[in-house]
Amino acid sequence: MAAKSDGAALCVSENESASRCLVAPEQSPAPLQPCADKRFTLLDCCWVLCALLVFFSDGATDLWLAADYYLRRDYWWFGLTLVFVVVPSAVVQVLSFRWFVYDYSELSASPGGDGCSFSTKGSDQRSCGGAAGARTVPANGTQKCCRVCMWIFQSIIHILQIGQVWRYIHTLYLGVQNRWHGELGQCHFYWRLMFESADINMLRLLEAFLKSAPQLVLQLSIMIHSNHILPLQGLSASASLVSLAWMIASYQKVLRDSRDDKLPMSYKAVIVQMLWHLFTIGARTIAFALFASVFQLYFGIFIVAHWCAMTFWIIQGETDFCMSKWEEIIYNMVVGIIYIFCWFNVKEGRARFRLGVYYCVTLIENVGLTAAWYIHRGPHTSDFYALIILCVVVCSYALGTFFMFVYYCLLHPDGPILGTQWSCVEEEMGVIGLGGIGDLGTPLPQPDVVTSPPRTLQRTTGGDREIGSGDRDSCLPVFQVRPTSVAPAPSSRPARTEGPVIRIDLPRKRYPAWDAHFIDRRLRKTILLLENTSPVTPRIQYHSFSNPKEVMEYETTV
Predict the structure, then answer these.
(1) Residues in a beta bridge with 20
(2) Beta carbons within 8 Å of 301's beta carbon, 6+ residues apart
(3) Which letter does DSSP use for residue 408 in this model?
(4) Which residue in 157, 292, 417, 453 is a FRET match for 142, CA 20 to 30 A apart?
(5) Average pLDDT over residues 191-217
(6) Percent of the chain that is helix, strand, coil (3-state, to 5)
(7) Residues in a beta bridge with 507
(8) Helix (H) and strand (E) counts for the chain?
(9) End-to-end CA distance of the chain
(10) DSSP 8-state secondary structure symbol assigned to residue 535
């Protein structure tokens, strides 16, 4: 990874290597401009507040139900309910605190003598670390006291298991700052807002499928096994179901908002997608609970077998989400847990085909699990009661399928599912962008959004890909903008002042993966440090295989 500024030297300090001073070339390809015309709106604020409400309602109802089981002397149900609350929450808190330790220790060390002294165009001092002439700002007593207080504060809130609450509040604060500041401050706080939103959605999605999903199956199994429903049981199960559907839709929205090569998702589409997952997950968890109430041992075998099959399917698809092979395998195993309950897109291309295969498999499984319960149900379950449960499963699955078709046919950000040609035009325009009227005579730059190929295969360009029929992401483009080999004619407009460009010698990951500067926290550190030292917002430039000569411009790599 190289952080550069056009015409100026920039210094980057990495933990793994010594600090290096880099000199950028005079020309740079079109970098990403993620903060252009982005504002935190009132709807965004309401969405974060509702997310906080969902988080509190899910956790509070589970703890309240666990206390109720204890008072009723149902110690077995009390223990299981409490385990599915405490253990996933502790895992998420450890991960959240680990992220805080890495981010805050790196950012707090940079102003002192250990880090790198950044400089930008027009600065008289361009040096790194302990080089001659380096200027360091010693930390005074007040700064040290503030750092100690921050460490104590973060430790306390993570011990109290409310690290997510702090991140939601911090997101609201960054959103308000993004709204009130000018253009320069808007871009600065937009970077931090997107980073914080990505972190909280990753953490909450992990927590939802480690806590809310097992809790939902457990409470439904208890209700079916005991043949009666307590109000707290219904409340806890409903809160867990809403939390699952909410986090899937929220994760997809933030992921699309973070990428400039994808059109953003409207809140109408988010709500419809939430209803889609709400009803499909509801039908699936009821089928799980019915089967588990009769065949406890076989239910465990079924879950393990389904998880292994889904994980193998995901690994075979060769996803490209993490920065290393082993992290990718762990990620695939976590996604395998998600696939136990619902669909989750992890690979570009042929998404509709995989979606259809997944829902056909889950439909067969739901029918088989429910039929096995109906045949082997206990004598205390009447036929009328059994038929009502069967109707609930069928209607819930049908409603979820209906909202899925509504989302893809009417509200998908890339256009209707039947408008294949128009969706291709929209996607190409969404990648390259369209300038104003005055920019029509200037050739548009080649986009840096390229496919990151499997690690075990030779890299291929977009033209070598096999085009699948009906594939929205792999359809033939209506037009292409090719870089010209002739230098463009000089323009009469004044030259635009170039700011620092962070160049990454990696291909940009394709949707639905996060960009590397969201996953790799070293890149985050570089972006935020440049934001604090440069009067111009830094831009991101990923490596493009369409220009072989560009490889010579990279002095360092990640």
Answers:
(1) 12
(2) none
(3) I
(4) 157
(5) 92
(6) 60, 5, 35
(7) 543
(8) 15, 5
(9) 5
(10) S
pLDDT tens per residue across span 280-297? 999 999 999 999 988 988
- Could you give the angle at the alpha carbon of 403 between the alpha carbons of 399 and 405, nearest 5°? 115
Q: At what angle do helices 351-376 and 383-406 cross, to 10 degrees?
A: 170
DSSP conformational letter for 32: B
Sign, CA dihedral 337-342-344-349, equals positive
Percent of the chain residues past pLDDT 90, beyond the cut: 41
In angstroms, rounded to a whole number, what is the distance separating the alpha carbons of residues 525 and 512? Answer: 23
Q: Which residues are CB-contacts of 454 (< 8 A; sequence separation ≥ 6)?
A: 318, 320
Cβ atoms of residues 25 and 553 within 8 Å: yes
Q: What's the mean per-residue pLDDT of the chain?
A: 75
Residue with tokens 């998600």: 338
Q: Which helix (H) or strand (E) holds 210?
A: none
pLDDT classification of 499: cutoffs 50, 70, 90: low
Choice between 229 and 308, residue whose per-residue pLDDT is larger? 308
| Helices 183-207 + 163-180 axis angle, to 10 | 160
User: Tens digits of per-residue pLDDT, 436-469?
Assistant: 333 333 333 444 433 333 333 343 444 444 444 4
**In the numeric block, which tokens belong to residue 91?**
């895992």
